[in-house]
Amino acid sequence: MINYLYQEQNWQSQLSNLITDPQELLNVLDLSQDQLLSGAILASEQFKLRVPRAFVNKMQSGNALDPLLLQVLPHHLELEEHTGFVTDPLGEEAANQLPGVLHKYKSRFLLTLTGACAIHCRYCFRRHFPYQENLPKNEDWLNIKQYLEHQPDVNEVILSGGDPLTLSNRKLALWIERLESLEQIKILRIHSRVPIVIPERLDEDLISLLKNSRLRIILVVHSNHAQELDAHTCSKLFRLVSENITVLNQAVLLKGVNDSAQALIDLSYRLFDARVMPYYLHVLDKVKGAHHFDLEADQIDKIYTEVLASLPGYLVPKLVREIAGEKNKTPLYGNPTL
Ligand SMILES: *Cc1c(COP(=O)(O)O)cnc(C)c1O
Ligand code: SF4
Q1: Is residue 117 part of an annotated ligand binding site?
Q2: Could you tell me the residue range of the domain that residue 299 belongs to?
Q3: pTM above 0.90?
Q4: pLDDT digit of tens for each residue in the chain (338 aa)?
Q5: How close is the Cα of 131 to the center of ligand 2, in Å?
Q6: Same-domain status, 70 and 191
Q7: How far apart are CA 176 and CA 164, in angstroms?
């Protein structure tokens, strides 16, 4: 392990001091530059490498197949074209009603306040999504408010991304206050990978902001492997749970990263150490550039069957696929061909 002094730094400086150069990443991990075929450099130009040093610190030095490294290192295979792998697999562009808004599910309304992420995950289904043209500005709030008032079934707003926890507490507070002013909204959900990759983001200001809201707050973090959840990260997550904030995890099933029952079992138990409950296990969205993370349906079925047989029911994440146009995530167990 490499010993950075990153834990001394606040989250803002960590966020402004990411590794974005593939060669630097390999150097830091004592890995040979031979890993980087020219295609990988091209891939990193299409979707930039971005990884916090605190996350790199959880990687194993000298291991080119480290499950955390594989999630972020640009790969020449990303340039391959594969049938069925497209730029907008979830049809989000079609579902876009107002800037920053995705309303596909009856009671839940998804709000994107930033296109920025602290980390770029190579398998991300949003890697081609045109965020920057599509963010709500302050003056859009009135339109969003009006829209919500005409959708009385909506009782939950999900801040998603991009990653909403790359925003300042001040900006978050402003949006939370706006949402609190709508009586119909009871639940605020925050989807974020930042607590896993920069645990310092869960600072006291954020905690007090969340625990003092009249909304029920749910934080859904995104961790794919137990190695991402070291003692420090777990203690930060546990701190939130101890303030009565519900914390759930979603993971993506990824070839080479967590494609074994044992990896998923370890992940669930580690999450539970921090009192974080496993929520979803997503199969890969068929996004262009991510084909090399894809698994065959029968492999998925075999892995998941073993997970089901090994874990208590409350630690089994729901295996789901998102299908464009569906009114909910589609459960996959027993239906591996979906
Ligand atoms: C996944 C998703 C949600 C939340 O779905 P849950 O099943 O409640 O977690 C809401 N809106 C959109 C557009 C989504 O993709
Ligand atoms: S949206 Fe989530 S999965 Fe996609 S790059 Fe950002 S942190 Fe990673």
Answers
A1: yes
A2: 92-331
A3: yes
A4: 455 555 568 999 999 999 999 999 999 999 998 877 778 888 888 899 999 999 999 999 999 999 999 999 999 999 999 999 998 887 776 666 788 899 999 999 999 999 999 999 999 988 887 566 678 988 899 999 999 999 999 999 999 989 999 999 999 999 999 999 999 999 999 999 999 999 999 999 999 999 999 999 999 999 999 999 999 999 999 999 999 999 999 999 999 999 999 999 999 999 999 999 999 999 999 999 999 999 999 999 999 999 999 999 999 999 999 888 888 999 997 655 55
A5: 13
A6: no
A7: 12
Spatial neighbors of 321 by CB under 8 A, at least 6 apart, are 282, 283, 285, 329, 330, 332, 338
Q: Is the CB of 126 under 6 A from ligand 2?
A: yes
CB of 193 shorter than 6 A to ligand 2:
yes
With respect to residue 177, please indicate whether it lies within any of the assigned structural domains. yes
Shortest-distance Cα residue to atom 2 of ligand 2: 193
Which atom of ligand 1 approaches the CA of 103 most closely? 13
Instruction: Report how far residue 242's alpha carbon sits from residue 33's, in angstroms, rounded to the nearest whole number.
Output: 44
Tokens of 165: 């926890």
- In this structure, what CATH number is given to the domain that contains residue 276? 3.20.20.70
